[in-house]
Design brief:
Largest sheet: 8 strands, antiparallel
Oligomer: single chain
Radius of gyration: 22 Å
CATH topology of the largest domain: Naphthalene 1,2-dioxygenase Alpha Subunit, Chain A, domain 1
Structural class: alpha+beta
Helix content: 10-25%
Strand order of the largest sheet: 11-17-16-15-14-13-12-18
Bound molecules: FE2/S2 (inorganic) cluster, fe (ii) ion
Shape: elongated
Distance between the termini: 31 Å
CATH architecture of the largest domain: Alpha-Beta Complex
Number of helices: 6
Number of strands: 18
């Protein structure tokens, strides 16, 4: 996958954590598009192509001027629609040149800034993002993976690697139990429900969880994953992970942890669960980089799969063809985890 399917530009992609953007614009790249993203004085989001039409200086190196971004070189300024508003030094009666910059749709949801790189397409981010309850968010972070977006998403949804990449932390070998996974396609992607009579074998489960009444993984196009855990006392923990390709070999992940219905202030989640979750992410980042390096060393090749590899086909199809596969309805898979 070297060229991006044009349909991917019609979707909303996560590009930044809102808290990381203060007074200055930032440079953002995704799917071959480069833009300058800024928060205006009124708190609106402005996303413009990162190239001034005057002498091609990057607007992301400029500054926010009220509701506009001004260029760092000669100070031309542009509003949220990309219209040229001022050329410093030009006499008042002189007409401005009829140029502007391309503007992109941008919005904030659940502490993350979303951009649609195409002029047309979806009117808002996917349903997983729209339904996220920001009041239950306890932790969020951003990680850059040296990995293709499909490999990275498969990793996050795949339970079978956990015994080897996260031994003891997520699951442990020698303590496997039967699990039934039910894959169901839907309009936005799919969900996988996991059912088992045995508790999960890793440290994270023993420290922070109790008997699960629900374990469900969701995928929503283009790049959102939700891992959802429900408990007998009605509480719920969800991990939302949003994947955005910078290049075919680099992917940004924006993660949010939500906790509902149990005592879990943000500081406690950060202090207690934060270091262990960070360790899990580092372990995944390491294996994904080894995989990417080896793909480069040997060249592309289709992998062999078994029934355990439930999620790859739909995600790969979407990122290759810009649409979910037809006739992908339901599968029940028995596995030992
Ligand atoms: S390059 Fe932007 S104002 Fe000159
Ligand atoms: Fe993992």
């Amino acid at each position: 996958m070297t060229d991006w399917h044009p349909a991917l530009h019609g979707h909303w992609h996560a590009v930044a954590l809102a808290r990381d953007i203060a007074r200055r614009p930032v440079a953002v790249s995704l799917l071959g598009v480069h833009l300058a993203l800024a928060r205006t004085d009124a708190g609106e989001w402005i996303a413009l192509e990162d190239r001034c039409p005057h002498r091609q200086a990057p607007l992301s190196a400029g500054c926010v001027d009220g509701e506009k971004i001004s260029c760092p070189y000669h100070g031309w300024s542009f509003d949220h629609s990309g219209r040229l508003c001022a050329v410093p030094g030009l006499p008042d009666e002189a007409a401005l040149p009829k140029v502007g910059v391309r503007a992109f749709a941008a919005c904030e949801r659940d502490g993350i800034i979303w951009v649609r790189p195409g002029d047309a397409g979806e009117v808002q981010p996917n349903a997983l993002v729209e339904l996220a309850d920001a009041s239950t968010r306890r932790l969020s972070w951003r990680t850059r993976l040296q990995a293709n977006v499909v490999d990275a998403m498969e990793n996050m949804l795949d339970p079978v690697h956990t015994h080897f990449v996260h031994p003891g932390l997520v699951r442990r070998e020698g303590r496997r139990a039967s699990v039934t996974a039910t894959y169901t396609a839907n309009r936005d992607g799919f969900q996988v429900d996991f059912e088992s009579d045995a508790p999960q074998s890793g440290l994270l489960y023993r420290l922070f969880e109790s008997r699960r009444t629900l374990e469900r993984a969701h995928f929503a196009t283009p790049g959102s994953i939700r891992l959802e855990y429900g408990y007998a006392n009605g509480s719920r923990i969800t991990f939302d992970l949003h994947f955005t390709p910078i290049t075919t070999e680099e992917t940004d992940v924006f993660a949010c942890v939500h906790v509902a219905g149990r005592w879990a202030p943000a500081w406690a989640v950060r202090l207690l669960a934060g270091p262990l979750l960070r360790r899990v992410v580092e372990q995944d980042a390491r294996i994904l980089k080894l995989q990417a390096d080896n793909r480069r060393r040997f060249g592309p090749r289709q992998g062999a799969s078994t029934s355990l590899d439930i999620v790859r086909p739909a995600i790969e199809h979407f990122w290759s063809f810009g649409a979910l596969p037809d006739g992908d309805e339901q599968r029940v898979v028995e596995m030992r985890l």
